[in-house]
Write a structure and sequence with these properties.
Mean pLDDT: 86
Number of strands: 12
Low-confidence stretches: 410-420, 429-453
Radius of gyration: 36 Å
Oligomer: single chain
Number of helices: 47
Distance between the termini: 79 Å
Helix content: 55-70%
Structural class: alpha+beta
Shape: globular
């Protein structure tokens, strides 16, 4: 009855009151079914009828139940939705429902609307249940698609997670990818678009493509937005920082003016931040002066509360000699918790408590404030996160040390003496400049002044020790150009073989520390050329010492200690300084210097993350794409290589570079290393550009010879084409012919040999002479291979059906020093295919290694181990996997889903037509699936319909060889193969097909 009134939107307060009073008066609700309880509270909430005693009665009854197993998902969702909608607080009920849902094995029986209502209810009621939100997020994130989720459900879900400060990036990504993939957003209502934009901004889950997709739709619905929705949309785009001229234009301004009187204070404050964003963008669109003033007033009137946490931070700032101003109002209306002066610059201190974060990520509001203060006020912002401060406890000394480090008041290289020396040198240099200026004003002393201020000539230095001494002695007269030359030469000296002896100078490290500190102090004054050159020098030094065992007290080991020790703090600090210095003059960089800068950061694997969620490489990409035609081949090569090396994706940059290269008349100016780096970068970043790959391969094929291609270039090119799945038989033939024609492969490193073999196997390019040549070389270098190279090499030979027994036997003893789980599986499978016993490798130690890594094996690895175990059965070996692991491997092996092709159906149909009764998709005891099984002359015969994937050229792949061999040997079932090309030759002639099968099976 109540449900009916609510469903037809019929209001009758008297009826609802009487029914409610009646239910409340009952001794208990034991006779009420879950659906009836659900319908009752849903009806009251839907009809807007308040009855607190009724809601309490129902809630108390549910809480008292032993369990909620009889409650269907819809009932649970409706109950919590009703309580949240009617603002009925009952913590025990919300806990009871949440605990029940979390304890479920899965949420498959929950419909999208039910999941949406539950998340919305807990967020609205302010009942945080992290485990519940995690359960729902994990369920949605692994769904194949979100096509069953209505726009309202999607909007409510992300709104709920943002409101509840529950950070689940995978959920937000899943929803955004779904929305972006839709043909259009016509079914999305105004409120839904507003809530989605607000949620992503609040949670700072940036997805520019989502906001770009929403913008034109939001613009078309502008007239339907109420004032708060308009403000939410504007604020959201300001936070995410995605320009949207189709949305924010004069129409938007007019819409704001029409609704000016309707905006609440919060909405006006949001419009103020949007207006500041337009200032950031240097846009011509802005609010009229009168509305700007109104918005500013609303923004600055927002209440603020100084916490005990904030008081404590300010007290410690004072204790380290700073004089913090408290609650400083900036020109644009932001309030800073404190403002201090550090080294002559204003620094804002933000004491960020839990409300400033979603998990450990800053909220959209926090990021927007920090970004706008930095960009528009010119004030640096330093954040003190609550969890870092809480870790320090009550130890004031630790707090002082923490703030000094945060504000750069301690040595940037960890040595206060080095910094003090650097600052003293800077003062001395400034004084010398003043003296020089005075002398230059006197014509009689001009030549003396110029001589007095000239930097040192470092070209005659023979060692890095001499270089450091000269720089240290002349720091007070060294220009930025001299400093960049020093770091360039230092990197060069480190690569020299005569620089690997111990340093006798006991203060060599202190000299380097001082030069380093001085560089960090002066870096802000460098022009773009010196910045690029210095950064490149640093990057080469870091690359040359990273991850290496070096002679104690050698220059390399000392620099390794400086840059890489203490979690690479010095490296992070120096590259951070260079990145920030570059941002100020980025527009001045010429093509060569910009390329060097990008390459340097890529070489050092350094990618600074900004507060707005962007990265250093995002900014560099914008500059690079606007100057694409000015780059030479090496520049383009270095740029895309750097992005790949630092794992930074930027589809727009890669598309522009690819399009530019494709548009060139020819690639005659590209050296082999350029071509190699470009192909490798596109494959590594998974950036698809078929025309680029074709252009590069056509160019290489057209060359008379490949003598100028070093082994690494050949290896990387072939690896790239195989990885990117770019088929170009002529290129593979050209490279293989070149390698086979070489006298020997002495110059090829093990990784290059392994990558070449892997590439040909992956691309299914059969070339026995190449595989024979590589095998001969690998055997001579067997002791130089590492585990991954051995696994990749043997996998390639096995996969391609290229069985070289000597190669497998030679590498087996080296392979015994086992590897990662996938390498173990690949090695085991490869030997199984090759059928080359290796007792020195496959023994008890191998079994123990498998057991140690049992949890790490992916399904594919377990399946490979199953085939290896079958091989041990073939060999009648005493070595085998333990029963529990055998079972696990078998389950993984048979879990592969069979997929019958049209070719397979056609062959089975023809088998039936000749009087046989084929069983289809037969699972053997060993776990193999046979396409068909027939009985011929009293014997079982397996029919394998082998399509193109079963062959390399016309030779069976390793997988096909292994399957056929093990089924015959272990199952006692003969195997007959029907190769696709033989069947295709028969066309549609059923008579010929029947004759072919009879001959194949010995029936004719």
């Amino acid at each position: 009855m109540l449900w009916a009134y609510a469903n037809v939107k019929a209001s009758n307060p008297n009826l609802f009151k009487k029914v409610g009073d009646h239910i409340v008066a009952l001794d208990n609700l034991g006779t009420f079914k879950p659906q009836e309880l659900s319908n009752i509270v849903w009806a009251y909430a839907t009809a807007g009828e308040s009855h607190p005693k009724l809601f309490k009665k129902v809630s108390d009854h549910i809480v008292a139940l032993d369990n909620l197993e009889s409650f269907w998902p819809q009932a649970l969702a409706n109950i919590v939705w009703a309580l949240a909608t009617n603002d009925e607080s009952h913590p025990k009920l919300f806990k009871k429902v949440a605990d029940h849902i979390v304890a479920l094995d899965n949420l498959r029986t929950f419909k999208p609307q039910e999941l949406s209502n539950i998340a919305w209810a807990y967020a609205t009621a302010g009942k945080p249940r992290p485990q519940l939100f995690k359960k729902i997020a994990n369920h949605i994130a692994v769904l194949d698609h979100l096509r069953t989720f209505a726009p309202q459900a999607l909007a409510n879900i992300v709104w709920a997670y943002a409101t509840a400060d529950e950070s689940y990036s995978e959920l937000f990504k899943k929803v955004s990818y779904h929305i972006v993939s839709l043909d259009n957003l016509r079914t999305f209502k105004t409120q839904e678009l507003s809530n989605i934009a607000w949620a992503y901004a609040k949670a700072k889950e940036s997805n520019p493509r989502l906001f770009q997709k929403v913008a034109p739709v939001a613009a078309s619905l502008l007239s339907t937005y109420n004032s708060q929705q308009s403000a939410n949309i504007a604020w959201s785009y300001a936070v995410i920082n995605v320009p949207a001229p189709s949305l924010f234009n004069t129409d938007f301004i007019n819409a704001c003016l029409e609704k000016e009187r309707d905006f609440p204070l919060k909405g006006l404050a949001q419009l103020h931040q949007w207006n500041l964003w337009q200032e950031e963008l240097e846009s011509n669109v802005c609010l009229p002066a009168s509305l700007q003033e109104k918005c500013y007033d609303a923004f600055v009137t927002q209440g603020f509360h100084q916490s005990a946490f904030q008081d404590n931070v300010i007290s410690v700032l004072s204790s380290i000699g700073l004089e913090p101003e408290e609650e400083v109002l900036t020109k644009r209306g932001y309030r800073l918790d404190a403002l201090v002066e550090v080294n002559g610059s204003k620094v804002g201190i933000e004491v960020d408590g839990p409300s400033h974060f979603v998990g450990r990520k800053p909220t959209g509001s926090t990021i927007l404030k920090h970004r706008q203060v930095v960009r528009l006020e010119g004030i640096s912002i330093v954040s003190v996160p609550y969890w870092e401060w809480n870790k320090l406890g009550k130890d004031n000394f630790k707090k002082q040390k923490y703030l000094r480090a945060l504000l750069g008041l301690s040595s940037p290289v960890g040595l206060s003496q080095a910094l003090a020396d650097g600052l003293a040198i800077r003062k001395s240099k400034t004084k010398r400049r003043e003296i020089s200026t005075n002398q230059l004003n006197n014509a009689n002393e001009e030549s003396n002044a110029q001589e007095d201020f000239r930097g040192p000539d470092m070209r005659n230095c023979g060692t890095i020790g001499e270089l450091a001494q000269m720089a240290y002695d002349h720091l007070d007269v060294m220009s930025p150009r001299d400093m960049s030359a020093f770091w360039t030469l230092a990197a060069k000296f480190l690569r020299g073989k005569n620089q690997r002896s111990q340093v006798r100078d006991k203060v060599f490290k202190l000299k380097l520390d001082t030069i380093l500190a001085y560089t960090q102090i002066e870096i802000q004054s460098y022009d773009y050329r010196d910045l690029a050159q210095t950064t490149l020098g640093f990057a080469k030094i870091v690359k040359s010492v990273h991850g290496k065992r070096l002679l104690r007290q050698s220059p390399q080991q000392i620099l390794q200690n400086i840059f890489i020790s203490n979690n690479a703090e010095t490296k992070q600090s120096m590259f951070g300084c260079m990145a920030k210095a570059s941002m100020h003059v980025l527009s001045e960089f010429d093509a060569r210097s910009l390329s060097n800068l990008i390459y340097a950061f890529g070489l050092a694997e350094y990618n600074l993350k900004f507060e707005d969620g962007g990265t250093l490489f995002d900014v560099l990409a914008l500059e690079a794409t606007s100057n694409i035609k000015g780059f030479e081949p090496q520049h383009l090569s270095n740029i895309v290589w750097a992005y790949a090396n630092v794992k930074a994706t930027n589809p727009s940059l890669f598309k522009k570079v690819g399009d530019h290269i494709v548009a060139l008349d020819n690639l005659g100016t590209f050296v082999p290393q350029d071509l190699s780096n470009i192909a490798w970068a596109y494959a590594t970043t998974d950036e698809s550009h078929p025309k680029l790959f074709k252009k590069v391969s056509d160019h290489i094929v057209s060359l008379e010879t490949l003598e100028s291609f070093w082994p690494q270039a050949l290896s990387n090119i072939m690896w790239a084409y195989a990885t990117a799945k770019k088929s170009h038989p002529k290129l593979f033939r050209k490279v293989s012919d070149h390698i086979v024609a070489l006298d020997d492969l002495r110059t090829f490193k093990p990784q290059e040999l392994a990558n070449i073999a892997w590439a040909y196997a992956t691309a299914k390019e059969s070339n026995p002479p190449l595989f024979q040549k590589v095998a001969e070389s690998a055997i001579t270098k067997q002791n130089e291979f590492n585990s991954q190279e051995i696994a990749n090499l043997l996998w390639a030979y096995a996969t391609n059906g290229q069985i070289d027994q000597q190669l497998f036997q030679s590498l087996a003893p080296i392979a015994a020093s086992l590897f990662s789980s996938q390498e173990i599986a690949n090695i085991a499978w490869s030997h199984s295919v090759a059928n080359v016993p290796a007792p020195s490798l496959f023994n008890d130690a191998f079994i123990n290694a498998c057991l140690e890594k049992e949890r790490e094996f992916p399904l594919e690895g377990l399946a490979q181990l199953h085939q290896w175990n079958l091989w041990q059965e073939e060999l009648e070996s005493n070595v085998c996997l333990p029963a529990s692991l055998q079972e696990k491997c078998y389950d993984a092996f048979i879990s592969r889903v069979p997929n019958a092709s049209a070719l397979q159906d056609n062959v089975i149909s023809a088998l039936s037509s000749i009087g046989l009764e084929p069983e289809e998709e037969v699972l053997t005891k060993g776990g193999y699936r046979l396409d068909a099984l027939v009985e011929v002359n009293g014997s079982k015969v397996g029919i394998e319909v082998d399509g193109p994937s079963h062959f390399v050229g016309r030779k069976p792949t390793g997988s096909t060889i292994l399957k056929h061999r093990q089924v015959v040997f272990l199952e006692g079932i003969s195997i007959v193969s029907v190769p696709y090309w033989e069947w295709n030759k028969l066309g549609k002639d059923n008579g010929k097909k029947q004759e072919y099968l009879r001959a194949l099976l010995g029936l004719s």
